[in-house]
Amino acid sequence: MRWLPDRFTQALIVTVALASLWPASGRTAQIVEHATTGIVSLLFFLHGAKLSRQAIVAGIGHWRLHGWIFTTTFVLFPLLGWALRPVLEPLVSPQMYLGVLFLCTLPATVQSAIAFTSMARGNIPAAVCSASASTLLGILVTPVLVSLLLHRNAAAGNALHDIGRIALQLLLPFALGHLLRPWIGGFLQRRAALVKGVDQGSVLFVVYSAFSAAVVSGLWLQTSWRDLAGLLLVNAILLGLVLAATTCVARRLGWSKEDEITLVFCGSKKSMVSGIPMANVLFPAASVGAVVLPLMLFHQMQLMVCAVLAQRYARRPALLAEQEAKAEVAA
Question: Are 66 and 261 in contact (CB under 8 A)?
């Protein structure tokens, strides 16, 4: 049925419901936490094994495009979250707006950014390069931005400690996977369903872990329907401003439509796969659920909005004319 969300979104809703009704606590919570760390490390290991060096080399030459994508991800988003705080924070609870600020510090997502760029017929090699580099930069940049915006762990020693923990959980497995790519890359390409299953399964696992801790600490008792409605509005404002800004920048600079598409879809994404493990490191377990709730809602919103945009880009007149010309030549 068309009005139903996709299967992964349905699974995400079911996971949140399970964590709300049967949260992991005590010894079980410790087991779930260790298992979560393991499956997330496995996920980044698989991503490292999938990414080819040829794709990196093919996209790395578009330095202006990459610069604007990173500026949007790590400068524009945090500035919007900080500057709009007096206006947007009254719409939600103060604790929830901390989650909005955390959302603004995160790197771009890899899979959906590349998928939407491909769907819209954008610059795919540049999208692969930028989205992947954004994930790696986020391991270093996000803890620093969290310190600046949220005034958490502001001391240099603590910030370096957080960077080290995140690098150990995410960057090291990624590097090991890439080093082993010559031996396991072909196997993973033939087992795309396996990688996708680990990808989505890891998200569901970390969501269950995060929400279990939050429910035990009273998340739903402290979250009202007004806060949820306000959070949807806050996310919509942030996403709309960034989409408009990236489109205007690309057109003012006179870029090709392919590069515009890449900037729009890579610059507007925020990664839940990277964000939830980082939240587990940077925040107390009891507050992680409230902190990642804005990210979870933003993730679903960006997928739905960008799916519509990608279809509109794919139907642009110039592309259709090109496709018709190719069809005539082939005939």
Answer: no
Instruction: Let me know: does 108 contact 267? Beta carbons within 8 Å.
Output: yes
Instruction: Give the side-chain half-sphere CA count within 13 A for 182.
Output: 1
Q: How many residues comprise the chain?
A: 331
Q: How many CB atoms lie within 10 A of CB 316?
A: 14
The tally of CA atoms less than 13 A away on the side-chain side of residue 108 is 35
Kindly report whether the global pTM for this prediction surpasses the value 0.90.
Answer: no
- Please give the Cα distance from 64 to 67 (Å, whole number): 5
In angstroms, rounded to a whole number, what is the distance separating the alpha carbons of residues 15 and 135?
25
Distance set, CA 161 to CA 62, 105, 286 (Å)? 33, 18, 20
Question: Are the CB atoms for 171 and 137 separated by under 8 Å?
Answer: no
Class of residue 1 by CB neighbours under 10 A (exposed 0-12, middle 13-18, buried 19+):
exposed
CA atoms of 15 and 13, how far apart (whole Å)? 5
Residue closest to 108 by CA, chosen among 149, 67, 151, 137: 137
Cα separation, 197 vs 277, whole angstroms: 18
Residue type, 231: L
Rounded distance, CA 253 to CA 81, Å? 25
Q: Average of pLDDT values for 52-72?
A: 76
Q: Hey, what are 238's tokens?
A: 């942030």
Instruction: Let me know: does 309 contact 239? Beta carbons within 8 Å.
Output: no
The helix (run of H) or strand (run of E) holding residue 100 is: helix 94-105
Q: What is the pLDDT of residues 182-217, one digit of tens each?
A: 888 888 878 777 777 776 677 677 678 767 776 776
